[in-house]
Amino acid sequence: MKSGIYSRRGVANLLAVWAAVSPARFTQAQPSPQEAAAAPVDVPTAESGFYMHRFEYDPPSTNSPQQVAVGGDFNKWSQTANPMVSDGAGHFVADVKLVEGPYAYRFYINGGWVNDSANHSEADLEESNGIRGHNSAVIVGPDGRNLAPIEPGKIAVPGLHHGGIAQRLCPYGVGGRCAQHPGLFP
After folding, report:
1. Which of 5, 106, 131, 136 has its Cβ near the most Cβ atoms within 10 Å?
2. Other C-beta atoms within 10 Å of 125: how many?
3. Rounded CA gap, 16 and 18, in Å?
């Protein structure tokens, strides 16, 4: 995900959306590796600010796990809430609907927690898990870390983003609107 390079999960997301839109397209030529590499990592949902994020676990060739799930701060570290399924190519995947932002996560495999590979986890976001280790980390949705520095007195237009998140985060929100601050979130 760094520097414009996308993982297999991004390619898989593109192919899943492509298949859902038109299954007949798979009988035609598939995208080139360059086109597939340009696929988004997260697929926006119809609900503003939410994305379908694909978690992918690549087991070592010497290991064939029986049960795999993804747990993290998005599901209170549940060992069962987001089970992963084999994609038939030796990978385990789970699509999870998440609001944009950073997340800590790990995989629960055959009764124990395992970190994601360096290829998928954002190393600069990883934090200690408090039990002699660290959690894997990912950013879902727009990632502003690579934006150009802001010039004094200027607005960085590429950094502007409105996903409706503020409305859902306001503690006074009613029906997706902020009842306490009606002029703040039109």
Report:
1. 136
2. 15
3. 5
**Cβ of 72: how many Cβ atoms within 10 Å?**
22
**CA 17 to each of CA 10, 26, 70, 81: distance values in angstroms, whole numbers, following the listed order:** 11, 12, 21, 23
Residue labelled with tokens 């038939």: 88
Instruction: Say whether both 28 and 107 belong to one domain.
Output: yes
Q: Give the position of tokens 């998440």.
A: 98
Question: pTM of the predicted model, to two decimals?
Answer: 0.62
Read off the pLDDT of residues 14-72 as tens digits, 9 standing for 90 and up: 444 444 443 333 333 434 333 333 345 689 999 988 999 999 999 988 878 989 999 99
Whether 81 and 112 share a structural domain: yes
According to DSSP, residue 134 is labeled B
Give the tokens for residue 92.
């385990």
Range of the domain at 30: 2-146
Number of domains present in the structure of the chain: 2
Residues 128-181 have pLDDT tens digits of 988 888 999 999 988 877 778 888 988 877 767 655 444 444 444 444 444 444
